[in-house]
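Tip: read the tokens left to right.
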């Protein structure tokens, strides 16, 4: 662990003002198309699901409609499962994995569950390939009351309007090399702190809830995913990204206290997946399918109860 060169925007030790946020935003460029890579693929989702436009983001780079898919034949006797992807838009397999689940797998579980699947919570972040929204806010720390991030606020409003109890919620994420190269240094600069370099785990892991860890479900997810890709080993100190490994491939965070997406639904069963797309041992397709395998592992476990 050692300190590295200060971030290119701002003055080290001083929090960003609106000036630095604007400077940061102006330095971001569109690198891919939400419409072509995400929305166009929604057309291939089966008729078993209803597509709902639950909101819209209006940013200087354009307008971004927000979509969710809901089981068309909703049965109040079935448990409700929420799948979210792209809360961090740059984490590609979260988005593409959610779409792949809808396209190939979800219909196989409709006899047992109602589904709400939100493939891309943060489309601006998807296009810019960034963790934050244009205001340099992290949507995955913004699932709180009076959220300052519209990505988070609109999803919470949508779920509140549905007025349903969520039984299980799986939030699909990645841990990437760019976390250390760009996003954690930017966070330190924004908050007036000095960035201290950490490490990136090579492999898949999950983040459970400190207050409700769901150990057996996490184990089932890991066992399902390891049929597709490798699981991240613990660092020599027994941690992954600085958090204690509580079982193979699993760490815990206080989800609600941190304003994380997986916590806002207050589901009985919750987890956050973390795929490592920069591994030499995994392809992009394997990363997408690892996300699907994680969902399958959760659903199979819930069916066994």
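Filled-in amino acids:
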């Amino acid at each position: 662990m050692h300190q590295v060169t200060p971030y290119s925007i701002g003055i080290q030790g001083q929090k960003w003002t609106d000036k630095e946020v604007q400077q940061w935003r102006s330095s971001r460029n569109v690198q891919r198309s939400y419409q072509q890579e995400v929305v166009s693929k929604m057309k291939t989702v089966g008729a078993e699901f209803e597509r709902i436009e639950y909101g819209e983001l209006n940013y200087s780079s354009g307008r971004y409609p927000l979509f969710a898919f809901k089981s068309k034949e909703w049965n109040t006797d079935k448990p409700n499962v929420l799948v979210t992807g792209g809360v961090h838009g740059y984490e590609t397999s979260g988005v593409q994995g959610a779409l792949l689940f809808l396209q190939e797998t979800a219909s196989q579980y409709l006899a047992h569950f109602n589904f709400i699947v939100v493939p891309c919570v943060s489309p601006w972040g998807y296009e810019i390939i960034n963790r934050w929204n244009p205001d340099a806010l992290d949507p995955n720390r913004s699932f709180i009351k009076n959220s300052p991030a519209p990505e988070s606020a609109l999803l919470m409003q949508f779920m509140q309007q549905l007025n349903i109890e969520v039984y299980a919620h799986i939030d699909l994420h990645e841990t990437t090399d760019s976390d250390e190269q760009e996003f954690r240094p930017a966070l330190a600069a924004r908050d007036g702190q000095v960035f201290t370099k950490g490490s990136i785990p090579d492999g898949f892991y999950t983040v459970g809830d400190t207050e409700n860890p769901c150990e057996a479900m996490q184990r089932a997810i890991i066992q399902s995913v390891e049929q597709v890709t490798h699981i991240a080993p613990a660092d020599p100190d027994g941690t992954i990204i600085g958090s204690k490994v509580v079982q193979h491939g699993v760490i815990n965070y206080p989800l609600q206290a941190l304003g994380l997406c997986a916590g806002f639904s207050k589901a009985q069963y919750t987890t956050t997946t973390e795929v490592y797309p920069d591994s030499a041992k995994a392809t992009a397709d394997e990363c997408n399918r690892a996300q699907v395998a994680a969902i399958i592992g959760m659903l199979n476990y819930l069916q066994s109860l």
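The two ends are 44 Å apart (CA to CA). The beta strands are 49-59, 62-71, 80-85, 114-118, 168-174, 205-209, 239-240, 243-244, 250-253, 269-275.
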